[in-house]
Please model this.
Amino acid sequence: MRSSSGIGREVALKLSSLGADVVITGLEEDGIHEVVNTCQTQYKRRAIGVFGDLTDDTFVKSLVDKTIVEFNTIDILVNNAGILMNSGIENPEYINTFDRIIRVNVRAMQLLTQLSVPYLVASNGCIVNTSSVCAAKPVQS
Model:
């Protein structure tokens, strides 16, 4: 659901152009504000920005709560946050790198989905999960 840059930004803008109200989240406040502003001014849609780290369970819960307070529903969940950190297994920091990748790429998506499912079921909504090209072709370290 990181939507302040890259693919997430473009998905948010496209959904907004098609009439969706959107929640923009990420770690780049300037990017969040830019996407929110574009959705509001160019597409005349409601958009809110929520700055935070998806590896923080408290933040993820507050993100869903803020979405419901603002929009009263979740119709589409786009799980787009992901990182790639190249670190060989012989690197002393490898396990920390591995943990961060799992927290961002897998756990955050799972928790956000779990918390959103009741609202998605009620709205007959859908989930869009993105993945890295590395899912099909691993990067050599």
The beta strands are 22-26, 47-51, 76-79, 126-129. The radius of gyration is 16 Å.
